[in-house]
Design a protein that fits this description.
By secondary structure, the protein is mainly beta. The protein is built from no helices and eleven strands. 0% of the residues lie in helices and 49% in strands. A hairpin with a 6-residue loop joins strand 4 and strand 5.
């Protein structure tokens, strides 16, 4: 059992950068594969990025590849999403998610057992 709390969202101009954090508690963080998802108003939740337990395997939504970087600090029980070159279409509520049982990268929300409350990102044009 793990609790997740996102932070770091806000308002930023197009082309700017933002770093999101996800603080985990209540479990052994290094045992969990982690991911970021996002959901824009009126749209389905969308996979953004995945990172495995030791941080050596990552994968990304094609539209954020090269702009976003997912990372983790297991000593701090924290997941990060560094977002650069932000675009208005990146506007969404961003959620972190955890799975204790994944052994390969997955991109479906149903693959993840635990979710944070979300943090809002707004990118202005």
């Amino acid at each position: 059992q793990v609790q997740l709390v996102e932070s770091g969202g806000g308002l930023v101009q197009a082309g700017g950068s933002l770093r999101l954090s996800c603080a985990a508690s209540g479990g052994t963080f290094s045992n969990y594969a982690m991911a970021w998802f996002r959901q824009a108003p009126g749209k389905e939740r969308e996979f953004v990025a995945f990172i495995n337990r030791n941080g050596y395997t990552t994968n990304y939504l094609d539209s954020v590849q090269g702009r976003f970087t997912i990372s983790r600090d297991n000593a701090k029980n924290t997941l990060y999403l560094q977002m650069n070159s932000l675009k208005p279409e990146d506007t969404a509520v961003y959620y972190c998610a955890a799975s204790r049982y994944l052994s390969v990268p997955r991109t479906l929300s149903s693959d993840f057992d635990y979710w944070g409350q979300g943090t809002q990102v707004i990118v202005s044009s």
